[in-house]
Amino acid sequence: MAAQALPFLRWSRSASTLRACSSSTATPHRLLSTLRRPAAAARCESGSKAMLKGMDFSELENWVRAQGFRPGQAMMLWKCLYGNNAWAHCHDELVGLNKDFRKMITERADLKALTVKDILTASDGTRKILFSLEDGPVIETVIIPCARGRTTVCVSSQVGCAMNCQFCFTGRMGLRKHLSTAEIVEQAVFARRLFSDEFGAITNVVFMGMGEPFHNIDNVIKASSIMVDDQGLHFSPRKVTVSTSGLVPQLKRFLHESNCSLAVSLNATTDEVRNWIMPINRKYNLNLLLGTLREELCLKKNYRVLFEYVMLSGVNDSMDDAKRLIELVQGIPCKINLISFNPHSGSQFKPTPDEKIIEFRNVLIQGGLTVFVRLSRGDDQMAACGQLGEPGDYQLPLLRVPEKFQVAL
Ligand code: SAH
Ligand code: SF4
Question: Which of 52, 63, 178, 195 is 20 to 30 Å from the Cα of 292, by its Cα?
Answer without folding.
Answer: 178
